[in-house]
């Protein structure tokens, strides 16, 4: 089920496999989703669920041993027209224009975005100048080096960097972790992307800074009108930032829908497990009931429902044999579980 009316990004039947020494690993299997202008879609799942691989495929930042299925479509709708990112030649000009231009990226580790040998300002200015055609279209302004520096300072101020005029000439290692994260957001947003991909951007930060960064991202999203694809293992973060959520397990989406509804009334036993694992105020943020067991290796994908090895509600003879189909619960919600597909007796 893909809610695709007016979507900025529409992913259809995305499959990604890796060739490894131990064999072929199917990391993403038939994922379809849509991100709408000005809105946030959260993808949640444990490490190994395929969420990061799926989003790296959107910007084609996959390692050399990865292959995107021939039938996958990753459509980005821009003012200049629609583009299928899955079909773009690897390393080509169009992909370079997209990354950091139409699509901004932020990661858990800011050093993945910054080079340690150049100042923050140098890297921001180069990014602004490299995407000046895109900025011209978005803002109706053409930047020279001096204007790019002023724009970079404004962005650093905008993300709450004190003394931005001094900090712009500092190296990434001279900033604290929280400040580096802010600088990375400023870098990603300085080119005014229409889509921001954020992969666990607050996971390494303490809870207070994490809350500040999430609030800042929401504020900037409203201001710039961009869409966000937000990847996290934390349902609490999803609750705070995303209007819609897709829950991934072992390469597939097992539940999706408006975040409020999914949190209020989770359907899939895995979603229930993730929510039960959320820390509560009365238990001093201690995790309560983690989903028991570990996510299986994609090299040994279980037959039937991929979650059946950990599911408290598995039905022997059904769940371990048949893959549950995606079942619509209403116009905006769906779940892949035999409890909802009319196969349970
Ligand atoms: Fe659990 Fe069966 Fe549903 Fe899978 S299909 S989540 S094993 S009840």
Structure notes:
The protein is α/β, with parallel strands linked by helices and 345 residues long. It has a domain at 9-102 and 193-252: 3-Layer(aba) Sandwich (Rossmann fold), CATH 3.40.50.300. It has 11 helices and 13 strands. The protein has helices at residues 51-58, 93-98, 120-130, 132-139, 145-158, 164-167, 177-189, 207-224, 235-241, 259-264, 269-276, and strands spanning 9-20, 23-35, 40-44, 66-68, 73-78, 81-84, 103-107, 195-199, 227-232, 244-249, 252-258, 326-328, 334-336. The longest helix is centred in the middle third of the chain and has 18 residues, at 207-224. The mean pLDDT is 90. The site of iron/sulfur cluster (SF4) has 14 residues, from loops. Iron/sulfur cluster binds at residues 268-269, 305, 307-308, 311, 313-315, 319, 324, 337-339.
Q: Any chance you could write out the topology, listing elements then pairs?
A:
Blueprint: E1 9-20, E2 23-35, E3 40-44, H1 51-58, E4 66-68, E5 73-78, E6 81-84, H2 93-98, E7 103-107, H3 120-130, H4 132-139, H5 145-158, H6 164-167, H7 177-189, E8 195-199, H8 207-224, E9 227-232, H9 235-241, E10 244-249, E11 252-258, H10 259-264, H11 269-276, E12 326-328, E13 334-336
Parallel strand pairs: 3-9, 3-10, 7-8, 8-9
Antiparallel strand pairs: 1-2, 1-4, 1-5, 5-6, 10-11, 11-13, 12-13
The structure holds iron/sulfur cluster.
């Amino acid at each position: 089920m893909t809610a695709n009316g007016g979507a900025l990004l529409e992913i259809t039947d995305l499959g990604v496999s890796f060739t490894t020494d131990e064999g072929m690993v199917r990391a993403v299997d038939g994922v379809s989703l849509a991100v709408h202008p000005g809105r946030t879609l959260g993808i949640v799942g444990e490490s190994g669920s395929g969420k990061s691989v799926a989003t790296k495929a959107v910007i084609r930042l996959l390692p050399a041993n990865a292959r995107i299925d021939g039938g996958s479509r990753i459509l980005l709708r821009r003012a200049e027209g629609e583009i299928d990112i899955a079909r773009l030649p690897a390393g080509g000009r169009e992909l370079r224009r997209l990354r950091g231009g139409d699509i901004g990226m932020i990661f858990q580790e800011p050093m993945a975005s910054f080079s340690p040998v150049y100042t923050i300002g140098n890297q921001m200015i180069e990014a602004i100048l490299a995407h000046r055609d895109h900025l011209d279209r978005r803002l109706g302004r053409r930047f020279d080096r001096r204007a790019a520096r002023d724009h970079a300072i404004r962005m650093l101020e905008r993300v709450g960097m004190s003394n931005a005029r001094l900090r712009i000439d500092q190296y990434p290692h001279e900033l604290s972790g929280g400040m580096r994260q802010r600088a990375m957001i400023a870098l990603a947003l300085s080119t005014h992307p229409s889509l921001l991909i954020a992969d666990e951007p607050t996971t390494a930060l303490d809870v207070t800074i994490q809350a500040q960064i999430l609030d800042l991202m929401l504020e900037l999203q409203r201001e710039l009108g961009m869409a966000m694809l937000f990847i996290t293992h934390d349902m609490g973060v999803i609750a705070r930032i995303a209007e819609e959520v897709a829950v991934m397990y072992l390469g597939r989406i097992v539940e999706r829908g408006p975040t409020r509804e999914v949190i209020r009334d989770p359907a899939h036993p895995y979603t229930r497990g993730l929510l039960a694992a959320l820390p509560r105020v009365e238990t001093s943020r201690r995790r309560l009931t983690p989903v028991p067991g570990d996510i299986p290796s994609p090299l040994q994908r279980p037959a039937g429902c991929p979650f059946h090895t950990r599911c408290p509600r598995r039905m022997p003879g059904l769940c371990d044999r048949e893959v549950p189909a995606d079942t619509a619960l209403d116009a905006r919600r769906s779940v892949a579980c035999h409890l909802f597909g009319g196969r349970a007796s």
